[in-house]
Amino acid sequence: MADLFFGDDVADDIEIAAVATAIGAPTAVVHETERLVYGGTHRRHDHRHLLLPALHGLQNAKGWISPGGLNHVCEVLQVPPAEAYGVATFYEMFRLDEPEHRADVTHVAHVCVDAACQIAANEELIAELEANGEHVHRSPCLGQCERAPAQFRQGIGGPDSVPADTVEVARQIPQQGDPSLRLLRNVGVVDPTSLDAYRANGGYQALAKAIEMGPAEVCTAVADSGLSGRGGAAFPTGVKWRAVAAEQGRPKHVVANCDESEPGTFKDRIVMEHDPFAVIESLTLAGLATGAENGWIYIRGEYPLATARLENAVIQAREAGLLGADAAESGHRFDIEIRRGAGAYICGEETALFASLEGFRGEPRSKPPFPTTHGLFREPTAINNPETLINTLDIVLHGAEDYRSRGTERSPGTKLLCVSGRVSEPGLYEVEFGTTLGQVLDLAGPLTGSGTLAAVLMGGAAGSFVGPDALDMPLTLEDTRERGTTLGSGVVMAFTDEIDMTDVLVRIAEFFKNESCGQCVPCRVGTVRQHETMVQFQTKGSLSPQRRSLVDDIAEVMVDASICGLGHTAASAINSAMDLGLLSKSNGEGPQFREGS
Amino acid sequence: MTVTEVSVNLTINGQAVSVPEGTSIHKACESAGIETPTLCWAENLTPVNVCRVCVVEVEGSRALVPSCARAAEDEMVVQTDSPRVRHSRKMVLEFLGSSVDLSQATELAEWMRHYGADPDRYDQPDLVAERISEEPKIQDDLYIRDYDKCVLCYKCVEACGDDAQHTYAIAVSGRGFGARISTEFDTVLPDSACVYCGNCIGVCPTGAIQFKTEFDMRAAGEWRPDEQDVTTTVCSFCGVGCNLELHTQDDRIVKVTSPADHSVTHGHLCIKGRFGWQYVQPPTRK
Question: Mapped to the 3 state alphabet, what secondary structure does A368-387 carry?
Answer without folding.
Answer: CCCHHHHCHHHCCEEEECHH
